[in-house]
């Protein structure tokens, strides 16, 4: 089961263009006439240079990356507008897609283009974010209010569990009423049992994707880097076109959310070129990597996932486990029999392996470890599992 990142944003912010660059899928874009109505879904490989480096050494018959799923939905204002006319809240189909997403990539338009309509007519990404948040908050509030009714009835039985649940719901309601996100409310492990059932939209981990014009991308990245490093940046003092970018980056910093700048249109064009040509182009623009790749990598991290690797002549492969998973659980990703019969894991960290160049050298140098059932798998571990086949 791939974990899913929902791409949301105002209409015509470039969601489908971004989706296409992530997935090379070719879903229709441009103009309200081709606005997304039905969701686009695709499973995407997570770029990982460790898989590439190991493949150069092992020359395997097969190399396999981890994957995440992206879903691209209709523009939010639009979904709401259509729904408001019918007075039914966010459409059930639209909501279904984003409720089930494990994290959100929120696309904010910062590119100017008179040919691409904007619901609020001007370019102002922080205003757009506030408007999207308001809509998500309203949806969560109605979820919470329905649950409060139910819990109040149940609490009459005197069962303490329901009283605690009610306390949590009221705290959430209060925060949402102040237009705060559910993410800002402190939620204990016990409360999480309840929130897991609610699929709150403002509780999901999120990243902001600033869809930027090609010529602003370099300076946008500079500002993001400065803010991330904690430098003081005054949005009023930067170049006019960068103000919104700075505002969103500062907000992300405050919230502990991730932010990435991309030029969806540029990347859509690059994806038509060969890898070599596309790399030359990126270099000429002074960009270290495709924004799409960053979006995938950051999205993957949002899901609280880590990658461990297996390497051999047959296959070099990246595997996904949740952060904190123990060795047998990781073994179970490969095969349930390996988990059942788990004896121990031979583990070499990728960085140590690269210094040695082979498993034999790693063993000699003493960087290959034998780990037992209680070992917590680390990102970048290369693992080989010993297991009892009879079990
Ligand atoms: N100049 C410029 N135009 C862009 C950029 N990204 C998207 N566009 C254009 O904006 C228009 C809308 O893009 P879409 O990707 O369809 O936007 P969307 O958010 O999926 O739109 P809806 O499905 O209607 O919500 C298209 O004409 C794109 O070519 C960009 O980075 N720069
Ligand atoms: Mg679209």
From TrEMBL:
Gene3D superfamilies: 3.10.20.30, P-loop containing nucleotide triphosphate hydrolases, TGS-like domain
Limits of the TGS domain: 304-387
InterPro entries attached to this UniProt entry: ATPase_YchF/OLA1 (IPR004396), Beta-grasp_dom_sf (IPR012675), GTP-bd (IPR006073), P-loop_NTPase (IPR027417), TGS (IPR004095), TGS-like (IPR012676), TGS-like_dom_sf (IPR023192), YchF_C (IPR013029)
Keywords assigned: ATP-binding, Metal-binding, Nucleotide-binding
Cofactor(s) needed by this chain: Mg(2+)
Name of the protein described by the UniProt record: Ribosome-binding ATPase YchF
Family that this chain belongs to: Belongs to the TRAFAC class OBG-HflX-like GTPase superfamily. OBG GTPase family. YchF/OLA1 subfamily.
One cellular component term from this protein's GO annotations in UniProt: cytoplasm
Upper lineage: Bacteria, Bacillati, Chloroflexota, Ktedonobacteria, Ktedonobacterales
GO molecular function, one term: metal ion binding
Biological role: ATPase that binds to both the 70S ribosome and the 50S ribosomal subunit in a nucleotide-independent manner.
């Amino acid at each position: 089961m791939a974990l899913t990142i929902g791409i949301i944003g105002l209409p015509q912010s470039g969601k489908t263009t971004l989706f296409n660059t992530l997935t090379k899928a070719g879903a229709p874009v441009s103009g309200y006439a081709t606005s997304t109505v039905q969701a686009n879904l695709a499973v995407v490989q997570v770029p990982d240079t460790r898989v590439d480096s190991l493949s150069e050494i092992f020359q395997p018959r097969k190399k396999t990356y981890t994957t995440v799923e992206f879903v691209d939905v209709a523009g939010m204002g639009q979904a709401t507008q259509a729904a408001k006319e019918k007075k039914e809240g966010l459409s059930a189909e639209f909501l279904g897609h984003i409720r089930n997403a494990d994290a959100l990539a929120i696309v904010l338009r910062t590119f100017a283009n008179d040919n691409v309509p904007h619901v609020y007519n001007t370019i102002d990404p922080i205003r757009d974010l506030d408007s999207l948040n308001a809509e998500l908050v309203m949806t969560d509030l109605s979820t919470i209010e329905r649950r409060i009714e139910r819990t109040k009835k149940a609490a009459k039985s005197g069962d303490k569990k329901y009283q605690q649940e009610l306390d949590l719901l009221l705290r959430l309601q209060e925060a949402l009423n102040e237009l705060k996100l559910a993410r800002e409310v402190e939620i204990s492990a016990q409360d999480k049992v309840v929130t897991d059932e609610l699929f709150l939209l403002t509780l999901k981990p999120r990243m902001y994707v600033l869809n930027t014009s090609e010529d602003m991308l370099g300076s946008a990245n500079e500002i993001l880097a400065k803010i991330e490093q904690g430098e003081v940046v005054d949005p009023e003092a930067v170049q006019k076109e960068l103000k919104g970018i700075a505002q969103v980056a500062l907000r992300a910093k405050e919230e502990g959310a991730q932010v990435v700048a991309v030029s969806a249109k540029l990347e859509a064009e690059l994806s038509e070129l060969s890898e070599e040509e596309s790399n030359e182009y990126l270099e000429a623009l002074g960009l270290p990597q495709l924004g799409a790749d960053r979006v995938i990598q950051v999205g993957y991290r949002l899901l609280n996932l880590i990658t461990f690797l297996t390497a051999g002549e047959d296959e070099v492969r990246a595997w996904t486990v949740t952060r904190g998973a123990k060795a047998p659980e990781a073994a179970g990703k490969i095969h349930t029999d390996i988990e059942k019969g788990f004896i121990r894991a031979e583990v070499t960290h990728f960085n140590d392996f690269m210094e040695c160049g082979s498993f034999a050298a790693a063993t000699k140098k003493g960087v290959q470890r034998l780990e037992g059932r209680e070992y917590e798998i680390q990102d970048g571990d290369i693992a080989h599992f010993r297991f009892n086949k009879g079990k």
